[in-house]
Amino acid sequence: MPKIHIKKGSVSLDMTAMCDVAFLLLTFFVLTAKAKPQEPVEVMTPSSIVELPVPDINIITILIDKPGRVFIGMDNADNSRALWLDGMTSQFNLKLDAKSKSDFINGGVLPVGIKDLPKYLSSDATTKKDLVTKTEGIAVDTSNAPSNELKDWIMNARRANSKASVVVKADAKAPYAVIRKVMKTLQNQGVDRFSLLTTMGAKD
Fold it and tell me: Which stretches of the chain score pLDDT less than 50?
């Protein structure tokens, strides 16, 4: 009895559905992704071989540039920037319009002190760049006196988000005396653990 031979054909796989899903996912991420605000100054961090990761959310960033100016920022996890602003405006009796508040909430690292904050938030992009060039940054010293403005920013930031970790991003050539003042201010505010941001260096 003759055997029945089944005709063999090439197997084809329709990839249309998979391509559709891939492009839908790509479109979703492009439309929902939020660009990270640009930092007001360029900071070249020192290198190290430490591989401990820095958290992506719930962080308070203290920036120290090469001349030793101090800036501060915080991400907007759980609407914390709005609460942060409420604390600072209440403490210093600031009057801000809706646009200025929106710019603060959606912004990044603050490049000016509290006295220049209303002018900075209400200015256009060109004026903001000019203010960043001329600013002396946020006042900081080793005391708890009103002259140490950084302590107020840190205190209100931690009230706005108690889960936030502190990250210090200092330029490799920033004055050590300024870094010491920042660290002392953090300790005075009960922040005994914080991260020093570095660039990954080569191991020996």
Answer: none
